[in-house]
Write a structure and sequence with these properties.
- With 313 residues, this protein is an alpha/beta fold.
- It folds into 2 domains: 113 residues, Nucleotidyltransferase, domain 5; 158 residues, ATPase, nucleotide binding domain (Nucleotidyltransferase, domain 5), CATH 3.30.420.40.
- Helices cover 39% and strands 22% of the residues.
- It is built from 10 helices and 12 strands.
- The strands form 3 sheets. Strands 3-2-1-4-7 form a 5-stranded mixed sheet.
- Helix 2 crosses helix 3 and helix 8 packs across helix 9.
- The longest helix is centred in the last third of the chain and has 25 residues.
- 43% of the residues are buried.
Length: 313
């Protein structure tokens, strides 16, 4: 007698700090686990795919099987070769055929894309972007990820790659980003940039669910911290101003660990977006509804979206 199993979709969100693995049953999250990305770097390259497979299989509840796996990876991802090309912030998964290895080990469909794209797809299909005609999503995390969806389809460069719109010059700051730009938006406006600025005033600040409440109290008592947050919002707004003018989205979603702090730097953001009459940009900017789960959720539905698109073409 054959035992029936119920298929689940797995999604992996690979970031410079953490790698989040999620299982979805339809649109419902069944299980989730986050592993420090640095842990995979301690393993020989040949064992990293096996480590991911072991994590996924360990998370599968009894009576369930794996239907597919989607991956969102930070930085450049080659959509033709399916190889991650991000030696700067995701070296442990870059430069080798990880997707092909996972496909062989799991014997299920496996798809990969840039992490900003899959996070945007997650919000578009499962979260705050439902019904949008042109949605932009900006992830403020270890770096800055940007994705634009036009009626659900990601904007691509002429060669099919994902535009790295987190790397745009916004100031004359002399610090050179790993992308080669001085005054790069990612260097100055990522959560990492904010964290570095705040740690000079708050050395032991924890970045968790309590950060918003803790910073709110400190901001009220410390003009210097209030100024850091205002300047951070202004810096985020400098980059957004350019992207909003170029892309013209009907809604912009902010995600990532710094997005939760939006109320603390909203005034700086608004100031940076102020323009003359006739040149105003769309200020419909809100926090993502899926939060940190957007990337893994979008990754989980990626193979299904790819298969649907293939059948429609």
């Amino acid at each position: 007698m054959t035992t029936q199993t119920f298929p689940l979709r797995a999604g992996i969100d690979m970031g410079g700090t953490g790698t989040r693995i999620m299982l979805l049953n339809g649109e419902r999250e069944v299980a989730s686990e986050t592993v420090p990305s640095a842990w995979f770097a301690t393993l020989p390259q040949a064992l990293r795919a096996k480590a991911l497979v072991d994590k996924i299989c360990h998370m599968l509840p009894p009576g369930y099987s794996l239907a597919s796996l989607g991956i969102g990876a930070s930085g450049p991802v080659n959509n033709q070769t399916e190889i991650i090309e991000n030696n700067d912030t995701l070296a442990c998964f870059s430069g080798y055929p990880l997707v092909a290895q996972l496909r062989e080990m799991l014997a299920v469909p496996v798809a990969i894309d840039n992490d900003a794209v899959v996070a945007a797809l997650g919000e578009y299909h499962l979260g705050a972007g439902r019904g949008s005609q042109r949605m932009m999503m900006v992830t403020l995390g270890t770096g800055i990820g940007v994705a634009l969806l036009d009626r659900g389809e990601p904007l691509r460069s002429f060669d099919g790659k994902h535009p790295e719109a987190g790397h745009i010059p916004i100031s004359s700051d002399p610090v050179t980003c790993y992308c080669g730009l001085q005054g790069c938006w990612e260097t100055l406006a990522s959560r990492s940039g904010l964290q570095q600025a705040l740690e000079k005033e708050i050395p032991n600040l924890a970045w968790d669910d309590s950060t918003l409440a803790v910073l709110s109290e400190i901001k009220a008592a410390s003009p210097k911290v209030a100024d850091i947050l205002y300047q951070y919002g202004y810096t985020v707004g400098r980059g957004l101003n350019t992207l909003l003018a170029l892309y013209g989205p009907d809604i912009t979603l902010l995600s990532g660990s710094a997005a939760a702090l939006l109320p603390l730097y909203q005034s700086g953001l608004d100031a940076a977006l102020t323009r003359a009459d006739g040149y105003a940009v769309n200020h419909h900017i809100i926090q993502s509804s899926l939060g940190d789960a957007a990337g893994a959720s979008g990754a989980a539905i990626l193979p299904t979206l790819r298969e649907t698109r293939l059948h429609q073409s």
